[in-house]
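User: Fold this, then the next.

Assistant: Folding the first:
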Amino acid sequence: MKPNIQASSGSLFEQLWGWAFAIAILGICVVTYFLADTKDLPLTIIGAVLGVAMTVFATFFLFKGQSKQQSALLNEQREQEKEVEIFKQKLEAYKTFLDALCRYVEIKDENSKSILKFRTAALAMHCDDRQMIDTNHTVGDIIKMYQSPDTDDEKLLVSLFNISDYFRGALYTGTINTRSKEYIDSIKTLTETFEQGTDATDAQDENNDTIRQEESIEKDSESIDGWNDYLLTLKSRGWTTDVANDLISISKPNSMATIRIRKPRKGTFYIVEVLTKDNNSEMAKALKAQFKGARSGGSWWRELTSLPNYGIRSGQLVSSLDNNSKARTVIIKWLDKLTNYIE
C-alpha cells in the first residue's frame, strides 16, 4: 500500500505546482495588462519576472522528468541483476542436486542418502509444483533401477534427460520440451555406445577367482549329487525351492535372504544373487567382501562366467542340470556356500 500512497502524493504535488505555475502566469499577465499604458520600466521588470518564473517552472519539470527516468532505469537495472542472481542460484542448485544423485546411486550409504534428500528439498525453491512432482517421480525411478543388476541404460538415460528438461523449463520460461525424433535417436545411440564400453578391473578379478574355483570342478563333478537329490537335501534343511526354465530360487520362512540363480534380461552370463530381507545393505556389503561380485542396496550378485563354458545356453538352465554334471557342480557349490553363509 505504501508505494501507492507515495505515488498519489507525488501526483498531487505536481498538480499543485502546475496550478501555482498557471496562476502565477495569469497574475503576471493581468498586471501587465493594467500597466500596459505606463512607462517602459515596469513592463521591462514584469517581463523579466515572467521570464524568470517560466524558467524556474520549466527547469523544475525537466528535472522532475529526468528524475523519474533515472529512477525507472535504476529499478530496471536492479531487476535485471536480481534475475541474473536467481538464475545463478538455480544453476548451482541443479548442479549440486545432480552431483548428490550421482553420489547416492554410486555409494548408497546413509550419508549420501541424507545429502540427496536435502538437495532434492532445496529444488522446491527453484521449481514449480509440476516440475517437482515430475522430478520426484523420475528420481524414484532412477533409484529403483540401481537397486537391481538389470539396469536399463536407455531407460536410465531417458530419465536423466527428463530431469534436464524439467530444469530447463524452470530456467527458461516458455521452453517447449517436445523432443524431436533426432533427439530421441541420439539417446539410443548414446546408450549403445555406453554398452560397448566395460570396466574390466573387477571382471578380471572375478574371472581369476572363477578359474581357481573351476580347477576343482572336474574332480568334484564326479562325486556331486544329482540335481533332484540336491533339491531334496535343500528341502530337508528347511529351504523352499522354486525352479523355472532360467530361474532357481530358494528361500526359508525365517531366513535373512533369498538366493537366486537366473539369466538377467540384459547380459551375457547367468548370475547368482542374494536378495536380503528388509534391504539389509550391511549384509550385502559382507557378501561382496566374502564372495566378490557387486552389490546395490541390500542386493548382491555375481556373474557365473563358467556356465557357458559347460554348454548352458539361454532358456536351458534347469533342463540341463540332470545331465550336465559340471554345470550342476558350479550351481550346487554356489548354493552350498551361500546357504551355509546365510544360515
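Now the next one, as you asked:
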Amino acid sequence: MNDRGVMIVPMDPSEKKEVKKLMQSVFPFLMQLFFSFTPNILVAKKDGKIVGGVILKVFTLSKNRKCGLVAWIFSDVSARGLGVGQRLVESALGFFQEQGCQDVFASVEGFNTSSSKLFSTRGFSPISPWQQIRRYGFDYLPMLFHTFHMFDVGHFLWVKPGASQKVSSGGQWIATWLLNAVALYIAIGRGSGFTSLSSNIPLFVLISLGIFFGLRTVVMLAAAFALKIPVVFRMWMSGIFLTTAIALVFGGYFPIPGSIYPDLEGWSYKEQKSKIGKLSLVGILSVLLAVWLGILGKQSSMVGHWDPNFWNIFLSVGKMMCIVGIIIPVFPLYSYDGKRVLDWNKGIWAICAGATLATVFM
C-alpha cells in the first residue's frame, strides 16, 4: 500500500531496534516502560526509512468472538503531513478484517484529539463503561484485560463499530463520586482497621468527595457557559480500577475525578487549548479554595469542634487532589487540570503549583 511515497509493510524482526528507537522518540519515558512488541506489527517506510509503526493485537472472547486492538501507533515528526497515521490505521483495519475480527479497539487519552480524529473518521467512537458492559456482558473484564484498559487514567476506549448513543453526564458524575467514595472508604479501613472506624466515616467520605468533586464540576460548567463552549462530563472508569487497587493493596487513596471535555464534533485540542486551560484553572482554584476554607474551618471556634475525623478526611482528600491534579502535569497524570493549565500558560501554572505546595504543607 503506497501513498505519498509511504509504503506500509509487516515489520521484519531485524527492524525491532529501529522501531523501538522511533517509539522512544515519540512517547515520554514513563510511558515507554509499558511498550511491548506483538507478533503483528506494521511499519511505514519512506525511501527505505521507517517513519511510523502500529502494534496490533488479536484476542478472542467467549463464543469465539475475535477482536483486534491497536495497541500503539506512532510516526516520526519529520513525516508529519504525509498521512502516515492514516495509512497505518487503514492497513491495521485491513489486517483485522482478514483475521475475522468483529470488534476493533483503541485506547485514546481524552485530550489527544489528533488520535481521536484518526479513529473517528474510520468508524470508531468512544464507548462508555455502561455501553461496554451491555455490549460485552460477562466478557467485560476479559475485554478490559486484553485491551489494557484498566489503569490508563484519563483514557477512553474507542471501538469499531461505534456506540449508537451518548451516555448521561449526570450519571457519569454520580458514578464517579460513588466509586471514589468506595475506594476512599476501603483506603481508610485498610489503613486503620475497619472494626475501629466510626459509623460516621462513610458519611464524611461522601460529603468530602461531594464537596470537592461537586464544586470543581460546577465552576467548570459555569466557566464553560461563560466561554460559550458546550461541554460534557466524562468519568475515568479505567482510573477507578487503579484507585481501588491502591486502596486495597496500600491503604492509600488516589483521586479519580473525571473531567470536562468539549462536546464538539471533531474538535481540536490545539484550537481549544486556551478555553480548556481556563476551565482547568477555575477547577484548580475551586479545589484550593475548598482546602483553604477547610483549614480555616478546622481552626475556627464555631466549627472546629466538629468530629476531627471529618476534618482529617476532608483535608486529606483536598490536598491529594491538589498534588495529583496540579503539581505533577506528566504521565500518568497528564489528563488532570495541571497539564491543561501548563499547556495554556506556564506562568499561571507555576503560580498555582507554588500555591498548592504552600497549601499542602499548611
